[in-house]
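Protocol step 6 of 9: fold each sequence in the batch and record its structure tokens directly after the sequence line. For illustration, a two-sequence batch is reproduced in full.

Sequence one:
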Amino acid sequence: MKLLSIDYIPGAEIEALGVVKGTIVQTKNIGRDFMAGMKTLVGGEITGYTEMLTEARQLATKRMVDEAEELGADAVVGLRYGSSQVMDGAAEVLAYGTAVKIVEKK
């Protein structure tokens, strides 16, 4: 499955099948949250949160790809990610784009 942030596939004619998305709501764990609080005292990257968000993006992307495959898509174009806090200590990560079928290669 091709995943592109641009709205087309270079050298191909495509047919849009519809918007697809994948989402996950991830919560912080108490140990990770405590260590993050400690890190704010000295500065630097909070690797626990970086890892948590990387995993969340991967899961959201997989769910989006699964939805695109159900539509018979060859690719997802216009791929975007979003995130928001849904409650204290929990964030949603969303992956979305347009599922497309390659009609012909130029």
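Sequence two, same batch, same settings:
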Amino acid sequence: MELIELYQPRPIRFLELWSQIGWRVKTYGIAYQHSLPRPELVVAAKKIALPYLAPTSEDIRHYHVGFLGVHDGRGANFVFFDYWADENELHHHVYVSPSDQPQELQYVTPSGLIACVWDLRLMAFERQAWVENVLANPAGPNLEAYLDCRLNEDV
């Protein structure tokens, strides 16, 4: 096996708590050789996430909270939108676009692609924040505490 390049840490930064249609979405940026993703990619990511914020089926008990990962990658852009439902389930949707065409995000979840190693770090952080602040919180579920837990590190 030959690597194109050795692993290098990338910054994962909390960008904002995006509020739309009663939802609160922790929005993160990850970038290859930059401190933040390009603004046009962040705009495109929010555009593809917006339909998921519309009223969802009553069969899915969700909490109007989730997270959006915007990864300005080496060879392509990766965007994933995740939201919590049925107490302990994460609904995950992945989009990819060519590096030079950030607005051309295509839905790739059916392909089986989940995440890269940097995206997985963010997902692991969000999982732990959900467990500690909602599922295993001795004082009871605390969505505000969950939303206040934010990842900012080079990983």
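Proceed to step 7 once all outputs are recorded. Observation for sequence two: The mean pLDDT is 96.
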